[in-house]
Specification:
alpha+beta; 383 residues; 12% strand; globular; 13 helices; three-stranded antiparallel sheet
Length: 383
């Protein structure tokens, strides 16, 4: 599920009150408030609730191509890349074919004959068979490279339930009253229960799994764990096309497929939990992302996050910007060894799976105090 049910911003701001309200309802369903599912399990004597249920987020990182090549194109054209991009975006936004584009054209002309060997993305580094981030070339100084690394949450909006590798429900409904009571939001879903079975395993025993359900579940698990090869956007495969045109390809019996075949095996769960734990630790160290289990109070939030970043939508004085970095970028003072140390940490990331921070702001009594955007009227909207 998404780490934050909204876009990037300051969770402490008044504008984020609605977001905090949704997060409070989520946490009260999961592990707080006296009636959550984890608290209920503990009340029934379940010492390790993780044997029955788990909560996870997805997060990635990449490196923006702001190499020396861009600076050469800027110098030759006399136009900053951001200005050229903004002019192009404004023109496209207004859908004007003959609009003003002199700066964009000058920059494009200079860039077209400026050689560039810097990679536009390094996302392949945490996927199966990908390169080592420590060996990926960068054409520019170390400071520009460390500034180019960025991370963000992956916002999951599709709702998928896969039961016993036999049944799939995919649609728009959330696990909340608005979707489930039947008298609030309108929802739609497809239920797939195919009768094409394949030999599989479940909890170490032979098991007949539905071909569609188990291949979808295995594919998603491998994607989250980084056990799929990188899929380039400019080299589409048959899996990109509609099933009415091409059958979907899946590498049945491959080592990675076998590794996720039995979702209840000890080996699989060790890989799942260790990958999530390692990724979580790396992102926390490198990017100080929130929500985060290291942030239990608003003071922790300020020390760990607010005073380290220039946050979109938050106005601060120029002198306060010193020592801060742009939102989502590397917290430089964590790395006295420079970009080499950053890449050493990032080399441990596999896939995009991270633990959901269930202790985030857990010591704050009222995560969402009532106000203009959270009151008796909006309460029903959120629930």
């Amino acid at each position: 599920m998404p780490a934050v049910p909204a876009f990037a911003g300051d969770l402490q701001s008044d504008g984020a009150l609605g977001t905090r309200a949704i997060m409070e309802f989520q946490y009260n369903s999961i592990n707080r408030g006296g009636n959550s599912i984890i608290e209920k399990l503990r009340q029934q004597g379940i010492e390790d609730w993780r044997e029955y249920i788990g909560f996870y987020n997805l997060r990635n990182y990449d490196r923006i191509n702001t190499s020396s090549t861009m600076r050469r194109a800027e110098a030759e054209s006399g136009v900053r890349y951001d200005d050229a991009r903004r002019q192009h975006d404004d023109m496209v936004g207004r859908r004007q074919e003959g609009g003003r584009r002199e700066e964009y054209d000058r920059y494009q002309s200079a860039a077209s004959h400026t050689s560039d060997q810097t990679w536009d993305t390094v996302s392949a580094c945490y996927m199966d068979g990908g390169p080592d981030i420590r060996k990926v070339p960068w054409y520019g100084d170390e400071e520009s490279e460390i500034n180019a690394f960025v991370s963000e949450e992956l916002y999951i909006h599709s709702k998928v339930l896969i039961a016993d590798d036999r049944l799939v429900i995919c649609g728009s409904a959330n696990l909340n009253d608005r979707s489930q009571l039947g008298n609030h939001d309108s929802e739609i879903a497809v239920v797939i229960e195919d009768q094409d079975f394949v030999n599989s395993k479940m909890d170490g025993r032979p098991f007949k799994a539905a071909r569609f359900a188990t291949s979808l579940r295995r594919y998603l698990y491998r994607k989250h764990l980084g056990w799929l090869p990188d899929q380039r956007w400019d080299r589409p495969t048959r899996n990109w096309t509609p099933v009415t045109r091409d059958p979907q390809d899946y590498d049945w019996g491959s080592p990675a497929d076998r590794a996720v075949e039995d979702p209840l095996s000890d080996n699989f769960w060790r890989s799942w939990t260790e990958t999530a734990h390692t990724n979580t630790a790396v992102f926390s160290k490198v990017f100080h992302n929130v929500p985060n289990d290291r942030v239990r109070t608003w003071k922790d939030y300020n020390d760990f996050f607010s005073k380290r970043f220039i946050i979109p939508g938050v106005e601060i004085r120029e002198e306060e910007k010193r020592g801060r970095v742009d939102y989502g970028h590397v917290v430089r003072d964590e790395f006295p060894g420079g970009v080499a140390e950053v890449k050493e940490w990032l080399s441990r990331v596999r896939g995009t799976l991270v633990e959901m921070p269930l202790d985030f702001l857990i010591d704050v009594e009222d995560l969402a105090k009532e106000g203009l955007s959270f009151n008796a009227f909006t309460d029903e909207i959120y629930t």
